[in-house]
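Q: Please design a sequence for this.
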């Protein structure tokens, strides 16, 4: 492809890469308002949506009724007329699998179930009918001897067999009081889901019952009620306008289920045993073992649950979607359930509740910090083009409307640099009428927020980065081996902080789809020469054999010692006792393709190849700017692409020992892309002389308020939330100031810096638009607009809605100091 073609694809990407937001249908729906909002989306560059029925829909629009389906069909047809794409949502409201309780209605046996353990003293006479409730099924009765610490030795457990509603203790040795009788009873979990009408939310009288997702018959009914219903009304749009069906964090036992239960269903004991457990080991799902086997039993139990969930729920959904020309998308209940993404045509995850965030290292620490790589690496190793992330749900600082545009940009970059390429903002609200709507999983991140007038910039940024991360392959040479239901985060934190690229590789995929060749592991076009392991993980025997073969051929295996001192099963190349020593242990066996000089723990980097072009994405996840250089092993013609500004410019790399290096300056909340074409010469190795700040002028006087939408007059400079009557005001203020420029010759560059401003600032100089900035630093290049003589500066600032809606008192308005700096 020619250079211009690459530029055009980046600057004007296909609408395929549009954000596809959750659209909360949460009020009385009308065709007129649906049409207006759909066209409003399109005008802002949002060319798709997920139809998400949400609490607040009136009872006059029953879920899946003809009235409801007519509105769905209208919205889909309107989207089709504009070339938009639609993802259907399979529930009302979530978690998925119950069809708003309709699966259980008429089939009470399809209600979600679980396993409970009931303890009885061996001295008591045990009558089973006294212990079993309606719908309960006795799975096992066992006698155990508890240690003083409450643990047991499963080898000493005795299976008891009831006779005529009673349990006999005659088969036990020793006095009856020495024994504890354990009953394992399959029971209804009493779980629920959130409904779409008032009165159907958690704990409310009409809350819908959750379904037994481990029961294939329940799934068959779920598909008949939902998927077939949508297809009946929209068959002509399937595979064209309708591209996917979204299943949302299905919970096996439902929300608010009886505490203490374990996921279970009819005849699941056979699944439990088939994974290598024994019936006598059921107590270890609750109790510890004196022989240390409890963790292994629980791991095999979880594996049995995942297998059953895949077979009974995800597989039928996936097959139905594929048969009907659409993709299964959505995500499991847990942030690191990577194995359950096996059958998703578009694997997904979500980032919610500010469990991931810019502060307190939440972008790197904890199980939720793996959510982005969970979806992207599941897609990589299964050959899926796209992976989705439902992002920004309840990501305000206090689970409220206090989500800034700058933090929204942080979340997007956090996803992109980890390989995500289909963004589903959570959520655009149909209505914010009344507290039950505007306070239901806030904030609205679209039409009802302050950045909506500028959303086309945001949408275009999402499209450019999604295009870049699609049909490209990251250059990771390190595989971090993981379980199907857990992704290690402790050992990958230093990799992120030192710009070492890696991919998570599931143990199951490693041995079923991977091959060892010439000292590397090859899978789905990826090639790994190094494996990282946490020693505490219990590996399958075939995994151990596979990794030993890998090492024998020259591959490197680096293990992080378990915190509890457990020994690994693999003969490692090196074992690291402290995670901080991991990078130095890696360096003798591998070299990164990208290196920062100097290094910086807040900069994230990914190196991807798209056709024959190399792209280096660099993201600043910190709060201070970075200035340094970026060294790459790839050399060639190099450009700097700015996906936010929509600019492309050549840069002048300098030769380095590893290859070449370029100057890298990253402001807070900034990301850049380096494009390297190795088939072309790099051009001049003489970098342009950097501009230096010569003079700075403080514009501290002469400010006035020209116009505002507040209930009282704000100050000309300073936070208006400190003004009486404006403590909780949200709105927009237009400020004005005049300044003199008294020389004929302008400097090469003039930069206006507003200092502090909260939170979206628009600048005009002499009536000409100089730009919009949504986060700090609030800097504007005003060189083209300043003239000799008097210049009029206008600054329009809009503050957070959290002040009004959540009664917060966040800083608001233009605070300054405002400076004008000349660079030459």
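A: Design:
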């Amino acid at each position: 492809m020619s250079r211009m073609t690459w530029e055009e694809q980046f600057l004007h990407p296909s609408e395929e890469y549009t954000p596809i937001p959750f659209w909360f249908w949460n009020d009385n729906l009308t065709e007129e308002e649906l049409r207006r909002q759909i066209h409003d989306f399109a005008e802002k560059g949002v060319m798709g949506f997920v139809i998400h029925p949400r609490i607040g829909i009136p009872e006059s629009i029953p879920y899946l009724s003809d009235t409801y389906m007519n509105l769905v069909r209208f919205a889909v047809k309107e989207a089709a007329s504009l070339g938009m794409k639609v993802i259907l949502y399979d529930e009302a409201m979530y978690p998925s699998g119950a069809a708003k309780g309709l699966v259980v209605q008429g089939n009470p046996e399809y209600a979600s179930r679980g396993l409970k353990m009931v303890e009885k003293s061996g001295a008591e006479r045990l009558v089973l009918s006294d212990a079993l409730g309606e719908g309960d099924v006795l799975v096992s009765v066992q006698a155990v001897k508890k240690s003083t610490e409450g643990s047991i030795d499963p080898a000493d457990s005795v299976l008891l067999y009831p006779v005529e509603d009673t349990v006999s203790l005659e088969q036990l040795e020793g006095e009856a009081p020495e024994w504890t009788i354990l009953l394992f009873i399959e029971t209804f979990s009493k779980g629920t889901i959130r409904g779409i009408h008032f009165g159907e939310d958690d704990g409310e009288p009409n809350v819908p019952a959750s379904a037994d997702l481990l029961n294939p018959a329940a799934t068959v009914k779920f598909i008949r009620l939902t998927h077939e219903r949508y297809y009946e009304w929209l068959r002509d749009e399937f595979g064209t306008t309708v591209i996917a069906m979204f299943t949302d964090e299905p919970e096996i036992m439902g929300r608010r289920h009886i505490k203490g239960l374990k996921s279970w269903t009819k005849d699941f004991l056979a699944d439990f045993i088939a994974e290598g457990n024994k019936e006598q080991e059921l107590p270890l799902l609750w109790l510890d073992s004196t022989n240390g086997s409890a963790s292994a039993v629980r791991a095999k139990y979880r594996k049995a649950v995942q297998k059953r969930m895949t077979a009974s729920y995800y597989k039928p959904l996936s097959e139905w979607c594929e048969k009907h020309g659409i993709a299964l998308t959505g995500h499991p209940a847990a942030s690191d359930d990577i194995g359950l993404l096996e059958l998703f045509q578009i694997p997904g995850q979500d980032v919610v509740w500010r469990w991931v965030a810019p502060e307190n290292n939440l972008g790197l620490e904890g199980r939720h910090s793996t959510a982005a790589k969970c979806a992207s690496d599941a897609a990589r190793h299964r050959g899926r083009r796209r992976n989705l992330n439902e992002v920004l749900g309840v990501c305000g600082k206090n689970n409220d409307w206090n989500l800034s545009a700058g933090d929204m940009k942080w979340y997007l970059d956090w996803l992109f640099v980890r390989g995500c390429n289909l963004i589903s903002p959570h959520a655009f609200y149909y209505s914010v009428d009344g507290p039950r709507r505007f306070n239901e999983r806030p904030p609205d991140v679209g039409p009802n927020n302050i950045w909506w007038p500028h959303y086309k910039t945001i949408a275009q940024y999402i499209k450019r980065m999604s295009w870049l991360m699609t049909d490209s392959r990251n250059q990771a040479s390190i595989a971090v081996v993981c379980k199907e239901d857990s992704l290690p985060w402790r050992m990958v934190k230093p990799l992120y902080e030192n710009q070492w690229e890696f991919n998570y590789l599931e143990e199951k995929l490693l041995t079923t789809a991977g091959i060892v060749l010439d000292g590397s592991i090859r899978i789905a076009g990826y090639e790994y020469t190094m494996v990282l392991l946490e020693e505490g993980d219990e590996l399958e025997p075939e995994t151990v054999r596979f990794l030993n073969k890998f090492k024998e051929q020259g591959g490197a295996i680096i293990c992080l010692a378990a915190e509890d001192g457990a020994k690994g099963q693999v003969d490692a190349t090196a074992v690291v006792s402290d995670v901080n020593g991991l990078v130095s242990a890696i360096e003798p066996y591998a070299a990164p393709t990208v290196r920062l000089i100097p290094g910086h723990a807040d900069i994230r980097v990914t190196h991807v190849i798209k056709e024959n072009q190399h792209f280096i994405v660099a993201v600043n996840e910190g709060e201070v700017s970075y200035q340094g250089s970026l060294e790459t092993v790839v050399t060639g013609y190099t450009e700097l692409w700015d996906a936010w500004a929509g600019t492309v410019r050549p840069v002048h790399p300098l030769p380095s020992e590893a290859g070449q290096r370029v100057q890298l300056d990253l402001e807070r909340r900034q990301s850049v892309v380096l494009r390297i074409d190795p088939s072309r010469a790099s051009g001049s190795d003489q970098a342009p002389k950097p501009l230096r700040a010569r003079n700075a002028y403080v514009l501290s006087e002469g400010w006035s308020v020209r116009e505002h939408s507040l209930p009282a007059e704000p100050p000309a400079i300073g936070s208006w939330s400190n003004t009486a009557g404006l403590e909780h005001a949200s709105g927009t203020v237009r400020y004005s100031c005049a300044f003199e420029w008294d020389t004929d010759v302008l400097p090469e560059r003039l930069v206006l810096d507003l200092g502090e401003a909260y939170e979206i600032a628009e600048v005009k100089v002499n009536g000409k638009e100089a730009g919009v900035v949504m986060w700090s630093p609030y800097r504007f290049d005003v060189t083209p607009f300043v003239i000799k003589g008097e210049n009029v500066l206008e600054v329009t600032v809009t503050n957070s809605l959290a002040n009004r809606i959540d009664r917060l008192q966040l800083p608001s308005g233009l605070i300054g100091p405002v400076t004008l700096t000349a660079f030459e």
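Q: Thanks. Anything notable?
A: The chain has a mean pLDDT of 94. The CA atoms of residues 636 and 678 lie 4 Å apart.
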